[in-house]
Design goal:
Layout lengths: L10 E6 L2 H11 L6 E6 L23 E5 L4 H10 L5 E4 L10 E5 L13 E4 L8 H15 L5 E7 L6 E2 L2 H16 L2 E7 L5 H8 L6 E3 L8 H7 L2 E5 L4 H6 L6 E4 L2 E2 L3 H16 L4 E2 L14 H13 L10
Parallel strand pairs: 1-2, 1-3, 3-4, 4-5, 5-6, 7-9, 7-11, 9-10, 11-12, 12-14
Antiparallel strand pairs: 8-13
InterPro entries: Elm1-like
Organism: Rhizobium mongolense subsp. loessense
Protein name: Nucleoside-diphosphate sugar epimerase
Length: about 325
């Protein structure tokens, strides 16, 4: 396509409304510095699908870039490109099931040799996200004052849920409790946050550990996740998540992974490949063996890097990206 001549890129993001996939697209698009319009794909069944509002109109202002994630978005994005006479540059953030994308980013743990021969395919580490290092830095002082008024080091512990690769059985939950107890006994102020996938039993057993040195989000108050990220001097994150370690790695502070009960199968192989890449190849994370120690690495920001790759591909020459 011809180089884009504009001060800022106009981007659409197309995904299911699930926060996980939508945040990946939005995280990349926000780095263009221009307007970002979300186009959530709502799955409807039965007669209601015939009365759903249209996802887009060719009368709308044409976007420069469309970023999508998740298979339900793919056919919609191809229709958008055709409606706008193939002008938008379309990007997908996982291996698509359809052809026609101008650029595709596939996580290292999903990469296969066939992609090496496809010039429109690029690797990415984990997944992009919306957390921005400058926002975290702005929140850090207040977050630390709130959660560690006496100046103790803060360890943020992020817990997920069973996902087909790992299961939160009694052994796994006991292991998380042991880790939290070890940190609290070792002069750390511990902040624990569960995720949408965490079950009630996991939360119940973690809340049993609350004390002056252990704070567990109760899911009643507003989610303190970003402040937990901002306050942390180190992170301990269960292995069932790809997004949470990627978000923590934007801070440049130590990120440790905590083992769970494994479920043999292809899904486990992919997750273990992801963690091995972070730990052994990229030297970004470490396995938790009872202690959190300081170490150095270059912060990971795939959302910003992917935005730059897209800009180069379309011949866009902006000033410094937002957040630099």
């Amino acid at each position: 396509m011809d180089p884009v001549k504009s001060d800022l890129l106009n981007a659409w993001v197309v995904s299911e409304s699930k926060i996980g996939t939508m945040s990946q697209c939005t995280g990349v698009a926000n780095n263009f510095g221009g307007p970002v319009l979300q186009k959530p794909v709502v799955v409807k069944h039965g007669i209601s699908k015939y009365f759903s509002p249209r996802l887009f109109s060719s009368r709308e202002a044409r976007p420069d870039v469309i970023i999508s994630c998740g298979f339900r978005s793919e056919s919609h994005v191809i229709k958008m490109k055709r409606a706008f006479k193939s002008r938008p540059f379309i990007v997908h953030l996982q291996r698509p099931r359809v052809s026609g994308y101008d650029l595709v980013f596939v996580s290292n743990h999903d990469w296969t040799n066939e992609f090496d021969e496809l010039p429109q395919y690029e690797r990415m580490v984990g997944v992009p996200h919306r957390l921005r290092a400058e926002e975290i830095l702005l929140r850090r002082e207040n977050a630390r004052r709130r959660y560690s008024p006496h100046g103790r080091k803060i360890a943020s512990v992020f817990v997920g849920g069973s996902n087909g690769a790992y299961v939160y059985d009694d052994r796994a939950i006991s292991g998380i409790q042991d880790a939290v107890r070890t940190l609290a006994d070792g002069d750390w102020q511990v902040l624990v946050s569960t995720s949408r996938r965490s079950d009630d039993e996991t939360l119940r057993r973690l809340r049993e550990m609350e004390s002056p040195t252990v704070t567990v989000w109760d899911r009643c108050e507003p989610n303190p996740y970003i402040d937990y990220v901002a306050a942390a001097d180190a992170f301990l994150i269960t292995k069932d998540s790809v997004t949470m370690p990627c978000e923590a790695l934007v801070t440049g502070r130590p990120v440790y992974s905590l083992d769970l009960s494994a479920v043999p199968g292809d899904r486990l192989v992919k997750f273990e490949r992801f963690h091995r890449d972070l730990r052994e190849t990229l030297k970004l994370t470490r396995s938790f063996e009872g202690r959190l120690e300081a170490y150095s690495y270059s912060p990971l920001n795939e959302a910003k890097r992917i935005a730059r790759v897209i800009e180069r591909r379309i011949g866009f020459q902006p000033g410094p990206l937002t957040g630099e």
